[in-house]
Write a structure and sequence with these properties.
heterodimer; A: 110 residues; mainly beta; six-stranded mixed β-sheet; four-stranded antiparallel β-sheet; B: 116 residues; seven-stranded mixed β-sheet; 0% helix; 50% strand
Chain lengths: 110, 116
């Protein structure tokens, strides 16, 4: 069945470091792919999305490219800030369902 | 600009009690769903609906009921609360799928439920 596997955390980085959070997926058909961010005590917010192969989603310095050949949607940011500390979820949307990864906790230290 | 509204934000129940978690959206979305979030397990789908009058089970439906009488509302009922239902519950909505892929989901702020 359809599923998402993302990198286990927690991840701790120094401010201005490069971030990569890996996400791979299994799907039949042509899913949409998403990254969501969750700040403490809040719901999930859409960070970026891509709806077809080779699309690149970007927002607030974060980027992810929909790679059909490697079934991946890795999240990257060139220079993280303390305010990026949160839990990040990779998700797949297809048909009537969304499938979420288990989340990766990111802490950025000054 | 309300989006998805969940009530209550916090709730403590005794084992065996019943309650309803409310969810309302004002975006005229067809698709609504309920998830529970537990540490280390991500989000697990409880029930979902693709339109008024249509509901279906997700991954972990036992102990929960839903109904969808209007496009806007999708309440989740706990029939007889158990400590295993202690969790954070999120409601989400989205528009219909386009060309196979689903458009993004919008989430409520969550309900933190403790069953003692």
């Amino acid at each position: 069945g359809d599923s998402v596997t993302q990198m286990e955390g927690p991840v701790t980085l120094s401010e201005e470091a490069f971030l990569t959070i890996n996400c791979t997926y299994t799907a039949t058909g042509y899913p949409s792919l998403f990254w969501y961010v969750q700040y403490p005590g809040e719901g999930l917010q859409l960070l970026l999305k891509a709806t077809k192969a080779d699309d690149k989603g970007s927002n607030k310095g974060f980027e992810a490219t929909y790679r059909k050949e490697t079934t991946s949607f890795h999240l990257e940011k060139g220079s993280v800030q303390v305010s990026d500390s949160a839990v990040y979820f990779c998700a797949l949307g297809t048909g009537n369902q969304f499938y979420f990864g288990t989340g990766t906790s990111l802490t950025v230290i000054p | 600009n309300a989006g998805v509204t969940q009530t209550p934000k916090f709730q403590v129940l005794k084992t065996g009690q019943s309650m309803t978690l409310q969810c309302a959206q004002d975006m005229n979305h067809e698709y609504m769903s309920w998830y529970r979030q537990d540490p280390g397990m991500g989000l697990r789908l409880i029930h979902y609906s693709v339109g008024a009058g249509i509901t279906d089970q997700g991954e972990v439906p036992n102990g929960y009921n839903v109904s969808r009488s209007t496009t806007e509302d999708f309440p989740l009922r706990l029939l007889s609360a158990a400590p295993s239902q202690t969790s954070v519950y999120f409601c989400a909505s989205s528009r219909g799928a386009g060309q196979g892929g689903r458009t993004e989901a919008f989430f409520g702020q969550g309900t933190r439920l403790t069953v003692v």
